[in-house]
Design a protein that fits this description.
single chain; about 325 residues; alpha+beta; Alpha-Beta Plaits; Tumour Suppressor Smad4; seven-stranded mixed sheet; six-stranded antiparallel sheet; 8 helices; globular
Length: about 325
């Protein structure tokens, strides 16, 4: 059986602002130098540059371990180098990785892993590395206990599960991990990657989801979906904060799961009570809500004043009895 190829998509963020601030010639020259450096880093770690895409680079590696070494080195060094650059040139890297079988034709590469790596790069945001489970599995044995997840084969590389993330244009729902490249990152933020697609609770069509924000609470059945959550009164659940968009997120029932889709300009942040290290930033992207957690709308959890909506997924119908109990569902979430 052919070994999977690890595909890496590296994209520069903020290039539009660089063109506006510096002009076409200077910005294009700077972007070219950065992307060529990215290509050289890939090749120095045993990879192959497939093609340059304006402000992006598509590369492939025979081994996931080599690919992770390359992108960690890339983020660490690029972030350090750009501290001395003018503000318009401080363009962060967002990186997506996926492994699988590919087809090479006419000096290009095709396959589901190519599409997934590109999608994960787009969703990851600046200074972030996202990888699918097939990449993480190549990094060596996983620890047996709870706590930090670290590759034994690749010393110092840490990763944490972001759960099952719905990716636009993909039929399957991949399990996604964040590769932590920042040496100063507190280790207590890292959690054991779980087989979330296998262990995620199974919900029937009688499932419901309870939502709470400040003094407002409601329970919605799967049959009530889809609903909109936002600032205007027409939304199914209203969060009346100025940082919340008129229609900020959509909640729907898809293939036995509650799927949250961000519709806003500034995004939302999701975290789960049973995994305090998981904090997923969504911007025009989706994730599956399971168990109990919180969604910060329009501002991250690090902003103590952020409008935060609690959720609890219940394997029962959203009857009046359940609705009356909703406030108590979230009493213990203050320390999340």
């Amino acid at each position: 059986m052919t070994a999977p190829i690890t595909i890496v998509f590296i994209d520069l963020t903020g290039s539009t602002a660089a063109y506006e601030a510096l002009g076409n010639e200077q910005a294009a020259g700077a972007i070219l130098k950065i992307t060529q450096w990215v290509g050289r880093v890939c090749e120095a770690h045993g990879g192959r540059t497939i093609k340059y895409l304006g402000d992006g680079v598509l590369a492939s590696f025979d081994a996931g371990m080599q690919a992770v070494e390359a992108v960690v080195f890339m983020q660490q060094n690029h972030t350090e180098r750009m501290q001395d650059w003018p503000e318009p040139l401080r363009m962060g890297l967002k990186i997506g990785m996926a492994a699988g079988n590919v087809v090479e034709m006419a000096s290009d590469t095709y396959g589901d892993s190519v599409n997934l790596a590109a999608r994960l790069s787009d969703m990851a945001g600046p200074f972030v590395i996202w990888a699918d489970e097939s990449v993480v599995q190549q990094l060596g044995p996983r620890p047996g206990g709870a706590g930090m997840a670290q590759s034994e084969a690749l010393a110092g590389v840490r990763f944490r599960s972001l759960g099952a993330v719905r990716v636009r244009g993909m039929v399957q729902t991949p399990s996604v991990f964040q590769i932590e490249w920042n040496k100063d990152l507190a280790t207590q933020l890292l959690t054991m990657p779980g087989e979330l697609l296998e262990n995620m609770p199974a919900y029937g069509n009688d499932a419901s989801i309870a939502l709470a924000w400040l003094g407002s609470s409601a329970v919605f059945a799967a049959s009530d979906m889809p609903i909109l959550i936002g600032r205007i009164p027409d939304c199914g659940f209203v969060v009346s904060d100025q940082r919340v968009s008129r229609q900020h997120v959509r909640l729907e029932w898809v293939d036995g799961a509650f799927v949250l889709t961000d519709l806003s300009s500034f995004g939302c942040w999701v975290r789960f009570q049973d995994d305090v290290g998981t904090e997923l930033h969504l911007r025009r992207s989706q994730c599956i809500l399971h168990a109990t957690g919180e969604v910060a709308l329009g501002a991250p959890f690090s902003d103590f004043s952020a409008p935060v909506m609690a959720f609890n997924v219940l394997n029962m119908s959203g009857t009046a009895e359940h609705a009356s109990a909703t406030p108590s569902l979230f009493d213990d979430m203050g320390g999340l």
